């Protein structure tokens, strides 16, 4: 039956202090008329005031007369009210979002005094505030934009010039309308657009658990002299309602430069959660993916961070399989039919869980799959870095996303510096083109120090690929070293103020300068900056970066290098005037015009016939044929074919490159015989072995099996394993399995050792007793050896038993010449005599050598010996009774 919970009509006094005004709380779950006695202290009143309690505050309903000390209330069902003796203030919260530059970020004010709404449809009635009824967010306020076009806007102020910010909002767009988040800052406009429904949100504590809200975000750096911005969110006309919730602005602790990238994340300036990733559908509330942090002061005993201050660490539960984390359409965007490069660094101690990084299409499946092999762990560390860079080409779809997938098992995976760039295959001789400088933190105290790992540098080649900086030299240039400087590999705050830093990166004799990053030292606000336009100079500097030194004479190139150095100094200087900039620009332009080309070598006829034939044959290989080939060979074949086609299409191909391409393609075509192997039997054997209990087997045989087991697991995980490798691995594992040996039972040997150790040497001849000592020594050694075989145990037992049975009594012994195995009760080994009994009650710790017994060196515990002694004592007592 009903418990009555939630069905109680309430009329409760709040204050019981007679010096305070009493309030009465009223709740009616039935919505019926009810009559109540008022408190005695209210007897002088003629009426009371009734207020409804809302999420915005009190709202007066009216007054109710007191009749005969009672009030009759007619109220709404399931609605809270208070009853007061007189009028009370109906104050409203007017500072929603206090402390944030965005006012009323959650639309809790429920009016249009802060946010503005507009529409090209002529009216804005379809743009409304909605109080949600979803159980998890019941009472939460959102903005709803129905089917027509609609936009909400707000102007903000208080931005700090030179600082980096992100602005975000959560949006539900189940109808797939085009929704755009926009921020205008000075002459700069940044946008983020979504045009499809989000995937389902997951995670403990996630406000939108099991719902399809996506987080839209834009990032920007405030230009000099600018402190305001205009933000807006617009939904174009379409089917379905768009819901908007929780705007947020966040000032970055540092600055991450992403110029030249389609997608880049180093996790140094993440403003919420694990953005740009989210837990994948199916993860429920399993929050086991987070950002690992490296202490700026170096106080950690260990760190999971691979580069900079933060890295992404995921360690979802062993039973979780499939997609672990994913990006969304608001954080990862690729275009159809383009070639990209995906790269990242990672650390994975053990590959057993089967991690992979993937590019997928929501509607078209997997485009790129990168299985992650084990990196192991560096000596004295918890990580070991491996770098990955793979190219891929998208299809006709536009709904791509990144996913981190996992099989069964558990192991921490650390990821960092994840990027995607668009590749320009028309560039045949790529050179270093762009350098990006990012700072994890760019504010410090006077006298403060920041470690060098907060400064992150990366470069891009002229074809869009990531530059290899392993042999590069990097020079950091700080514009004003009176404010900050680099000392002993650390960024040091010298005095209060602001300055900038750039990185000059040199690769193969070519130097390219990075972007500027602002540095603030001390607590003073950044002083006003007189804006100097350096954009024209930057364009000319970038143009020089596309030139190739080997094409020009030494003298003219030296002149250009000098002009370029002067230009970069002007770009780096915060004190440069517009005249300084214009002069450097003109000088650099003149140096470019003065460049002299080296004499051109007459063109040489390049023979391509053999490469044309190879390409023709290669293009006849079908995708179906490639399905049975190991992936590494397929990737090499496709890359070699692509390279050959580009060389055939190029007018600048050399004979050397054509011949090399022919050799590469020929080798790749020959390797098409490398078929994938069948791993079914190997997997079955692995499963059988992994079910065994290692403690039951001799350690040396199990250790040999463990080595073969690890190798076989590697073969199973290797998608490029061929039949010969699989067969060899199976045979090696099977041999090791067959050579396993169970540990022998040593109970009988243990009993015999105990028996021998309790013999009294005084009763036997020296020669016969010496044989027992040798047998006992051998038996104890075998007993202590965990790798002893059954044969060794049996031999030791037999030898000791023979030695005992061969004992000869001394001439004067009471044994009368009988050996130790005699059943004659008068000369049994176990005697009740106080002078020579095996089990002594003496507490003298020094009698072990005087009583003539063998030393107890076996593997038995003191407790076991004590129990055995007790048994012997009991047996002796029985023998004694029989004598009587």
Automatic annotation (TrEMBL):
Endo-alpha-N-acetylgalactosaminidase domain location: 102-241, 257-349
Low complexity biased stretches: 808-851
Keyword Cell division among record annotations: no
InterPro entries in UniProt: Beta_sandwich_GH101, Galactose-bd-like_sf, GH101_dom-5, GH101_dom-6, Glyco_hydro_b
Keywords on record: Membrane, Transmembrane, Transmembrane helix
TM regions (residue ranges): 861-879
Lineage: superkingdom: Bacteria
Chain spans, region Disordered: 808-859
Domain (Glycosyl hydrolase 101 beta-sandwich): residue spans on this chain: 12-58
Name this polypeptide is given: LPXTG-motif protein cell wall anchor domain protein
Taxonomic source organism: Clostridium celatum DSM 1785
């Amino acid at each position: 039956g009903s418990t009555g919970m939630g069905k109680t009509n309430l009329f409760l006094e709040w204050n019981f202090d007679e010096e305070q005004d009493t309030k009465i709380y009223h709740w009616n779950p039935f919505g019926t008329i009810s009559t109540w006695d008022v408190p005695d202290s209210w007897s002088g009143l003629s009426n009371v005031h009734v207020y409804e309690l809302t999420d915005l505050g009190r709202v007066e309903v009216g007054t109710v007369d007191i009749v005969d000390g009672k009030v009759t209330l007619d109220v709404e069902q399931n609605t809270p009210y208070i009853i007061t003796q007189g009028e009370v203030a109906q104050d409203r919260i007017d500072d929603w979002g206090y402390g944030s530059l965005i006012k009323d970020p959650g639309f809790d004010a429920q009016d249009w005094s802060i946010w503005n709404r507009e529409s090209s449809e002529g009216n804005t009635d379809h743009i409304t505030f909605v109080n949600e009824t979803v159980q998890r967010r019941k009472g939460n306020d959102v903005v709803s934009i129905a089917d027509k076009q609609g936009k909400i806007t707000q102007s903000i102020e208080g931005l700090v010039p030179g600082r980096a910010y992100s602005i975000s909002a959560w949006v539900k767009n189940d109808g797939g309308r085009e929704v755009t988040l926009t921020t205008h800052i000075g002459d700069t406009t940044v946008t983020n657009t979504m045009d499809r429904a989000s995937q389902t949100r997951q995670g403990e504590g996630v406000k939108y658990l099991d719902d399809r809200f996506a987080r839209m975000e834009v990032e920007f750096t405030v230009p000099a002299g600018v402190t305001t911005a205009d933000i807006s969110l617009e939904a174009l006309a379409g089917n379905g309602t768009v819901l908007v919730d929780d705007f947020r602005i966040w000032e970055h602790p540092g600055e991450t430069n992403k110029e030249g990238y389609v997608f880049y994340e180093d996790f140094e300036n993440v403003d919420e959660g694990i953005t740009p990733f989210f837990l994948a559908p199916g993860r429920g509330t399993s929050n086991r993916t987070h950002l690992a942090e490296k202490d700026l002061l170096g106080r950690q005993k260990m760190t999971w961070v691979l580069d900079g201050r933060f890295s992404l660490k995921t360690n979802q539960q062993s039973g979780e399989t499939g997609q672990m984390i994913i990006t969304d359409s608001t954080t990862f965007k690729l275009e159809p039919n383009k070639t990209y490069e995906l790269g990242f660094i990672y650390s994975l101690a053990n590959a057993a869980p089967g991690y992979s990084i993937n590019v997928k299409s929501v509607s078209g499946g997997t485009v790129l799959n990168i299985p992650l092999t084990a990196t192991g762990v560096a000596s004295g560390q918890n990580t070991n870095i491996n770098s990955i860079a793979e190219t891929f080409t998208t299809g006709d779809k536009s709904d791509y996303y990144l996913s981190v997938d996992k099989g069964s098992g558990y192991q921490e995976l650390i990821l960092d510096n994840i990027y995607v760039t668009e590749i320009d295959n028309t560039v045949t001789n790529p050179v270093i083109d762009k350098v990006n400088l990012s700072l994890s933190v760019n504010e410090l105290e006077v006298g403060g120090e920041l470690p060098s790992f907060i400064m992150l540098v990366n470069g891009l080649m002229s074809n869009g690929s990531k530059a290899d900086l392993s042999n590069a030299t990097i020079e950091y240039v700080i514009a004003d070293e009176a404010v900050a400087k680099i000392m002993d590999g650390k960024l040091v705050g010298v005095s209060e103020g602001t300055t900038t830093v750039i990185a000059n990166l040199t690769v193969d004799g070519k130097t390219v300068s990075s972007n500027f990053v602002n540095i603030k030292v001390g607590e003073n606000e950044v002083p006003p900056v007189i804006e100097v336009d350096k954009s024209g100079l930057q364009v000319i500097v970038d143009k020089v970066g596309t030139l190739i030194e080997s094409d020009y004479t030494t003298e003219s190139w030296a002149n250009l290098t000098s002009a370029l150095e002067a230009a970069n100094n002007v770009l780096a200087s915060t004190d440069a005037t517009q005249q300084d900039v214009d002069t450097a620009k003109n000088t650099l332009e003149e140096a470019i015009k003065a460049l002299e080309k080296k004499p051109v070598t007459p063109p040489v006829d390049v023979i391509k016939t053999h490469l044309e034939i190879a390409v023709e044959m290669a293009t006849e290989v079908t995708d179906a044929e490639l399905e049975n080939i190991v992936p590494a060979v397929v990737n090499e074949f496709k890359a070699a074919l692509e390279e050959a086609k580009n060389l055939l299409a190029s007018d600048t191909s050399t004979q050397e490159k054509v011949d090399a391409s022919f050799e590469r393609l020929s080798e790749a075509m020959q390797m098409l015989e490398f078929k994938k192997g069948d791993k079914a039997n190997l997997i079955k054997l692995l499963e059988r072995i992994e079910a065994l209990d290692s403690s039951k087997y001799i350690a040396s045989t199990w250790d040999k099996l463990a080595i073969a087991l690890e190798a076989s697991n590697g073969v199973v995980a290797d998608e490029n394993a061929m039949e010969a490798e699989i067969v060899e691995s199976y045979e090696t594992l099977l041999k090791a399995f067959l050579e396993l040996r169970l540990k022998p039972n040593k109970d009988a040997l243990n009993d015999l050792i105990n028996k021998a150790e309790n013999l009294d040497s005084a009763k036997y001849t020296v020669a016969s007793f010496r044989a027992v000592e040798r047998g006992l020594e051998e038996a104890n050694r075998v007993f202590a050896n965990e790798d002893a075989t059954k044969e060794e145990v049996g031999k030791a037992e037999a030898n000791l038993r023979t030695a005992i049975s061969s004992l000869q009594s001394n001439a004067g012994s009471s044994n009368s010449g009988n050996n130790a195995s005699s059943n004659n009760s008068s000369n049994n080994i176990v005697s009740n005599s106080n002078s020579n009994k095996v089990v002594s009650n003496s507490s003298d710790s020094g009698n072990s050598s005087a009583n003539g017994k063998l030393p107890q060196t076996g593997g038995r515990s003191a407790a076991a010996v004590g129990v055995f002694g007790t048994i012997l004592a009991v047996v002796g007592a029985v023998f004694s009774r029989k004598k009587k």
